[in-house]
Give the backbone structure.
Amino acid sequence: MQTALSIAMDAFAYGMALFIICIGLSLTMGLMRVVNLAHGAFAMIGGYIASWAGRDLGLGYGYGIALAVIGTVLIAVPLERLLYRRIYDRSELSQVLMTIGITFCIIGITNYVFGPTLKTIPLPAELAQPVDLGFRSIAGHRIFVIASGLVVAGGLWFLIERTGFGVHLRAAVENAGMARTLGIRTEIIYALSFALAIALSAFGGVVGAEFLPIEPYYALRYMVTFLVVVSVGGAGSIPGALAACLLLGAIDVTGRYLVPDFGNFFFYLAVILVVCAFPRGLMGRAH
């Protein structure tokens, strides 16, 4: 029973960490129609900045997260203005080639600046210590990741479905020309959406570093993982992304606990089965 509870809690926390990182990519692909394979590179930048802030500057975990998010967005905004805007209306192949090139450039620059070593992000005592839930103890950091994932899911759903910004974003995606005619400044909408996606990737890179360690080739190592999670959930769907991350996280963690020699076998087997049964993902938006 204790083993099952341990697996369940670890799987839930891992799934939430995946969700925080991947939901920005899901929104970018589903709502902005951009295949941004450099998404993981921005999560890596966030992790590197947080590690630098915590280990070298001695700042607290909260300050490290804030600095990581702000710093990554400041790096990404000029790239959106100079590069990404050129591929918004281009073919998916053009988007893939451009964003893969950006990924390799970011990897090279990041390793030159921070060094090609594994980076750790110091946790505060409150998150490093176990918390007694009555039926078992769980690391405080895992509770923080789970709570963060729930807040992100609820906040994004409200933003996209219940605010004027969400209405303008959906209008710009469906018919950019008509949206401009109605006075919607689509370039600003896209820039804000892109910045939000990058902020989430940086935040996810930091809080998920215990599950997905920050290392020199993080962006390439997890590129396929992030992409298949979005495909399984359905690009642009917040509930779909959450369901996919929890499902695949549970399968991956359970497989690694019970049959560690199989590695990612069960994870990708589940991906194949879900995509065969749901070609648009669990809750994908129809284009």
About this structure: The radius of gyration is 19 Å. The mean pLDDT is 89. The chain has 13 helices and two strands.
